[in-house]
Specification:
homodimer; two-stranded antiparallel sheet; 278 residues; D-Maltodextrin-Binding Protein, domain 2; alpha/beta; DNA-binding
Amino acid sequence: MARDLEIILLRSFVTAVRAGSISRAATTLGQTQPALSQQLRKLEGVVGRPLLHRSAAGVTPTRAGEELIPYAERILSLSVEALTETSRVLTGHCGVGLLEDLAASRLSQTLADLARLHPGATLEVLCVSRADMREAYDEGRVQLVLDEVPDLPGPPRWTIRRPLVWAVGAGVDVTADPLPVVLFSNECAWRTAVIETLDRPWRVAFESNSLVGVLAALRAGLGVAALMPENLDPSMACHDPDALPKLPDVELGLARHPRTEGEPLIDAVETALRRAFS
Amino acid sequence: MARDLEIILLRSFVTAVRAGSISRAATTLGQTQPALSQQLRKLEGVVGRPLLHRSAAGVTPTRAGEELIPYAERILSLSVEALTETSRVLTGHCGVGLLEDLAASRLSQTLADLARLHPGATLEVLCVSRADMREAYDEGRVQLVLDEVPDLPGPPRWTIRRPLVWAVGAGVDVTADPLPVVLFSNECAWRTAVIETLDRPWRVAFESNSLVGVLAALRAGLGVAALMPENLDPSMACHDPDALPKLPDVELGLARHPRTEGEPLIDAVETALRRAFS
DNA sequence: CCCTGGCCATAACAAATCATTATGGCAGAC
DNA sequence: GTCTGCCATAATGATTTGTTATGGCCAGGG
């Protein structure tokens, strides 16, 4: 049998007592009635005594339930207090350097959520060339950089591998000879990956130095391109796994400026970035 | 993202900090190191900041971690306090009337566990005839009765259906004509169920008024019998589903003497009985 | 200098848990 | 009587969790 109470169950219990009914508590918690019913039964199992009188009118706490209520409320309030204390609203500034492909993905959503959570803080996202990124990092305008490992301005604190996949523009024949390819025009690690991977004749159908340009070219049916899965429009997925050679993974890493060690806001952004890939 | 902390995660965190190492904390918690590692990462996700510095030597709390520790310890101690208060060691006496088949099953183990948990309480299990049971119930020597619904001395507070299965004694031929059957000699609801279910010639090979007698007869290869699955030795299972007709379910129910409403010990025993069937 | 051992992180899979939909029973209102 | 609102249960599917099996990293000792 469980040795600890569970805070979620305590919240369910308190809500049910306040609501006087499991069904109503369920809706205020955004759950279904059977789910809550099961949770309360589980809690009763942990405590070892019935906590609620059930009737057709609703529920009322038993003797044991009444004894539990004050503890439950205290634990719940301590829980939110602990959270607001340790992850209290942050202030300051954090510059984040991102690979453009990452900036386009749901990562920006994550960062925007974070910024909304901390109205006193400013978040800035930068997508620039490797050299500019290094400069911004050295000058302290950017504290975190998430990019391909060789391009990082400092040692990676952690890394993560992501696959590349082929995106096939509308109406493009993947067996065409030569194969029309849409490329990033920057010196980018996977531009070379694409070129080295292709084992048959190909030609550059279009080049762009920005992801939106590449995506537009794909939508226009100009050719095929290598993307991270996050940026792949499902309609452009390549369904025949053998039509094009398998692309290598890219290794992304996060560099953090050493002077920012222990800064809560930078902590929070780093944790959010990491969590976005879990 | 989760809105509450989780007590289990707080315990993991505190243990890790105290142990100075995730691995050691894992062994003291009886878990594996990766499991704990994941839990701590999840907790960091909820808080939004790193809580531990990881190194090859072990872990030490970060600034945020140090802030969290006192909250975590307070919540943990409140949690155990709430449990010991609401499910504190009980005293008193509780008589439980059981169908013999139930007394033989793991249910006795459950009740023994409960008794060990509450050294100041005495538990008594009674397996007697329906009439004696009613008498004991009326006189207050038995507060809870778990039996077939029609045999209960009071209205059932809850019920549960259990299947009956055929047990085939060692070496018994289930196609024999007439089929040798081992029966309870008491007037028992499923004695009649067996008789009514059998759709071909049969004979009473052995009768006993106790479950151990029936089991002994089965082991001796005297015939087949109907049992609850809990009491079925796997070696006696009937493997051919069509060899014998399907037996009906039995409906068990729990009656509780009305005068015991709210008594903590009786509460605890009732909850334990119910939980044993969940 | 290269092992070796302790530490943590990750991956992949298996097991357990959880929430949902779909029911049914029960009691009071109409 | 039939409704209506309540709770409980069953069954299924999704999610979560824990496990084993690895690999990388750093420090200490040969």
